[in-house]
Every structure is written in C-alpha cells, then in structure tokens.
Amino acid sequence: MRRELFRADRARAAQLLERAPYVHLVGVVDGKPVAKTVHVVVVGDRVCFHAAPVGEKTSLLGANVVVFCEQVVAEVPSYFMDPVRACPATTLYQSVQVHGVLERVDDVDDKAAVLRALMRRFQPEGGHAPIDRRDPRYDELYASAVRGLLIAGIKLDDDNGDCKAKLAQNRSAEDVARLVEKLWQRGAPGDARAVDLIVAANPSVTTPAFLRVPDAVRGSIAFRVAVDDDHALEAAELLHDAYWNAGVTRA
User: Fold this and answer.
1) What secondary structure does DSSP assign to 111-140, as a single string?
2) What is the phi/psi pair of residue 193, to 5°?
3) Neighbours of 186 (CB within 10 A)
4) What's the pLDDT score for residue 193?
C-alpha cells in the first residue's frame, strides 16, 4: 500500500540509498528481466554506479529501470501489542524505489566525481591519490581507467523517487507508546535506533516516560537514545571542551 502517512521526502531517499550496503537494479531487456546488485552514490541529482564497459548492465542503458533498497528497522512480535492474537506481528522498515531511464555518464569530470564519491563512501580512510584532473598524477594513474569505466545514473527527484518509512504512523497514540516501551525493554541490537526513529516519525504522540528530561534540566526536550551520523556534529559540539577529550580532534 502506498499511503501518504508513510511517504518520506527526497532527502530521506538519498540518505537511505547512500547508507545501504548495496542496492538492486532491475530492468527488462528483450522481454526478459535483468536484476543486478550494485554500490551506488548520490551525486547531484543522480543515483550513480560504476561497472565494466561490457556486460549485462550495459544492456540496461537507455531502458526504464528501477533502483531500490530497503532497511528493516525492527521486527515487532505480536505479543508486544496483544497477548493472544498473532495478527499484530509486523515489520517496521524504510525503503526507497527510484524509477527512470538509466543513462550513461560521459563527461570525464562527472565520471571522476562519481568515483571520488564512491571512494569516500567505501574507503573513507583515504590512502589513495585523488581522482581529480587537477592532480598532476591524474594522467598517469587514472586517465585511462576513468575513460574505460562505465558510469551510469538515474535521476532522483520527488517525481520518480518513492520513499516509504513505515514506522507505526498508522497506529494509535497508545499503541505507539506501548511499542516504544516494549522495544526499549527488549533492547535487541537496533532497538534503540528503532525507538528514536519511531518517536521522530510520530511527533504528536506523548513522549514516553523513559525519554522525558526533568523540567529542571531542559524543559520539555526529550532524550535521544540513538545517535547516528546525522547528529555527529551536534555530539562533537557538546563534547569539545570535556577534559577527557583533550587532544582529540573534532573529526
């Protein structure tokens, strides 16, 4: 079901695509389905990947394709919500599908930008010369390889990106509060992050007791129980002058 209350925006779609360990690329060639698994990055308004210049992926160039990925947030057992019936068992998840024409990227600088983004994502520690034509070593190290690689992409915008975050938005306030409490009590890997995502997706629900900060401390602001990359700068700012952080860089 595609329901507006589950729909997320382009920024969330790009975030999910960039964080997925891999995505699926699917199309039809000569009446037959073709499915591939690829690493992607979002560069500008395109979801891009690299591949060899020959092979099955090239048969999808110029065709309508779908790129999609999904992320399970939490498996919710039935007894969280009902002591007897199996019906309430469900899965909370986030997913994105991008529909469009797969296009070849031919501009050398655009290809290099995609490859740099892939390296930043999958080798963030560096340890290599930059893939940049301004680098004096570029011609020797990369020019031939960049020319020979296939870089392809699909445009990502609000019209062709279908992003869904199913995080209990269709549940009653009482059900959401109970679900969050149960996840916190279970404490399985990922449950703290699930709590954070559910609370953020249901702002009208009363903050659960275990997330409330005493009024004397912060007014009505709520605790967070999971901090991801989006909050790294905020966390660094909070901790920068801690005595035990002396000598530790912000990075």
Assistant:
1) HHHHHHHHHHHH-TT--S----TTSTTHHH
2) -65, -40
3) 13
4) 93
